[in-house]
Every structure is written in structure tokens, then in C-alpha cells.
Fold each of these.
Amino acid sequence: MSNKTILRYTTGQRTNHWLVAILFFMAALSGLALFHPALFWLSNLFGGGPWTRILHPFMGVVMFVLFLGLVLRFWRANFFITNDRLWLKRVGRVIKNEEEGVPPIGKYNPGQKLLFWTLLACMLVLLFSGLVIWRAYFSDFFGITTIRWAMLLHALAGFVLVLSIIVHIYAGIWIKGSVSAMVHGWVSRAWAKKHHELWYREVTRDEHPDRPISKKG
């Protein structure tokens, strides 16, 4: 940590994140190609229909494994604390960029934490439902009713995941400095103090006696 910047993400964390992002877009595009005939033209990106069917589940499995790397790195920082509930009640001020009077938060705000757990839930549903409908290896072990329910859950989880990622991208662009942090790894002290004051205090040991750190709750 230098005098002017704070390390937010290490090289390994950033690499892990961008690999998941790349696999997500590949799996999403191939999944859309298989979802509806009107979108089948997307299969040309993967060498045609047969290759799309072959590659899609493998890309999904690799994406899940890489996502687990992010879960293992960040799950502790995504537990909710008392200040998060208070922050959500005053989220209107945050949206207006009027964060005075808004409770300080940790490394991730409540919106990011909700996104984290939503992504994990979607990934788990996609993994297990995907295994059920993976015809080449596993679908023979399940009845047609189970396969149909798995296909429905797979589509719903995929839909929620895509929407969540759209929100994630929009929020990252909207909060200036967020994308740069995931590209370069560093943020300014002013940025950290404004958006994630509890985390700022933790990494800089800059305490504010008037605004004590809340315990988990």
C-alpha cells in the first residue's frame, strides 16, 4: 500500500474474476443459441450446432469451478452486518450520491453482497440442473419428468444470472473507479473512504471514534 492508493484486488483475484467473466459470456451465448431457434445463429460463434452442444456444458463446468475460486476468496467479506441493513434503508441517498449520514460499510456494499449470494445460488442451480440434462453423460440416470424440471430450472437460473450480471456491469460503470479497481487492482484512499469506509479503516488503521465499526448481525 502506497501513500495515495490502496490495493483492493490482487493479480490472482483479478485474473480469476476476468476468467469467470469470459466463461460467463461464452456459456451465455452458447446457451442462448440452444434455448430458442431464433437465436440458433449464435452457434456459428462456436463452430455450429453440434459443437455448441458439446462445448456448452464443459464451459459451464469450468465457469463454476473458477467461480468457486472467487467464493473461497471473498465469502467472508460478503456476510451481512448491522450497518448493511441501515445502508439499505438509506440507499436513496447513495443513488443520489449523497452519502453523508449513510452508515459506513465494509469491503462490499449490501447490493454487492446480495449479488454475490444470488450468483452463487444461480451457479449451483445451473450446475446440478445442467448435469441432469447433460445427455452425453448423465441424463440416462434420470426420468423424463426430472429432466423437464431440470431444463426449466436451468433456464430460469440462467435468466436470473444474466440479469444479475447486467446489474453488476451497470453498477460497476456507475460507481466511478470500480472497473478500474478490477483492471488495475488499486483504488484511491478518497474512493475507499467514501464508498467503503469500514474497509478503509481496516486496511489503513484509520479509526473514527465517532463512527464505531458494527459487529456482524
Note: The chain has nine helices and two strands.
Amino acid sequence: MSTLTVTVLQAPLAWMDGEANLRHFDHLLAAIDQRDLIILPEMFTTGFAMQAATQSLPETDVIAWLHGHAARTRALIGGSVALQIDGGAVNRFLLVQPDGVVHRYDKRHLFRMGEEHHHYRAGQQRVVIHWRGWRILPQICYDLRFPVFARNRNDYDLAIWVANWPAARTLAWQSLLLARAIENQSYVVGCNRVGEDENGLRYSGDSRIFAPQGETLASSEPFQPARLEAELSLSELQALRERFPAWRDADAFTLQRDGL
């Protein structure tokens, strides 16, 4: 498929209340139909809570909920959730296809300033999803600050960051999303939350969809719930890479640790 229709839902999150959050997203998703990709924020069932995994909805329940909306909208749909699994807690990006196929990416870079590394286990695998002719790299929040992990090895066309990124650092959020798009000659989607959490942190959202040369395809008003829409073109992306093949001059490297 040459084009990919994308919807991003920038929303407030109820603290540690999975059922309330799913009901809210049920309402938002009811108005959406016939898309290719729908993205929800990081920890969309709980908010960014360190104890979330011990009180979160079971993974099977979240997957069943995502599958219901994926089947109805014919879209790949997902966001990250806190989960307690064998071996510890993870911040896991779940993406579910209409046919029920599930893709998982566990957050690699844990936010030490919030002590996430004391409560969650870091993911070990970089994941690329193949969907309707597109190659998609899922990432979570703090991963955005580490460009080596997200380096395009000519293996993806679209990178997605879901986040609970506080308003105090929104300039970094917006700037790094833009940089990841330009340096990797890739489309970039950034889906952030809004509202205030129980730790007193405020979230401005500032969700964005960027084109490979840095053009803003969709943006949101700060501090407001929003639904962003964009249509991405694979043929235009491929033409850019052929016309301006900066990727050919990238430095070769190999990540040695943790199986990467």
C-alpha cells in the first residue's frame, strides 16, 4: 500500500483506573473508521505510575479490547501499557492487527529520573513491524533521547513514539521528534498525553506527525485533547531517499550488547 492513513489520539488519562481509561478511549474511537494506523499514548490504561504494573489490567484483556477496535476500524491499533509478566514488570507497546496478530515492544530506555528502572525491566529487542507494505518502528517516550537505538538501518519507513512527556520538557520532545524524522529520512509520529497526573506533573501533549524532511503534517494545540490525522506516502518517501540518498553515507556500526 503506497499510502498509510494515521490517527493519533492525544488524551488525558485517569490515574490507575484501567476501566475508566478504556471507556474514555471507547468514546474517542467510536467516531473513527477505516484507518490504517491508530496510536494511543504511553501507559494509556494507567498513566505513568511506577506501581502501575501490579494493579494494571491483564495483558489478555487489553489485547482483546485493542482487537475489538482493530477489527471494527480495519486498523493496526496500539499504545503502551504497564504489565506484570514472568520475570518482572514491563512498559510494553502493544499493537494489534484486525486479524488478531499481536506485536510487542518492551521499552528499552527506562526513565531513571522517575525511577522507572527500579520498577520495570528494560526491553532487549528492537522491533520492526511489517504492516500493509510499511515497515514500522515502535518506541516509547524516553527512547526518543537515544538516536543510536532508533538509527534507520534502511529497515523502517515510519517511527512511532508514544509518551507521557511532561510540559516542562516539551521543547526537547518536539525538537527530538523532528530530528529523528530528518536524520533517519523517515516519517515520525509522536503521541503524547495531556492533563495532570497524581505526581503533580502537567502534560501539554504537543503530539506531532512529521514528514521525512521535517514538514509538520499534523500538530495539536498544547494542553488540549486532540485527534490528529495524516496520510503518509510511501512512494514520496522512496523518491526522497533516491533523490537525496544521505543514508548511503551513514557511519557503519554494530550494537554488541543485549543481543542488539
Note: The longest strand covers residues 76-85.
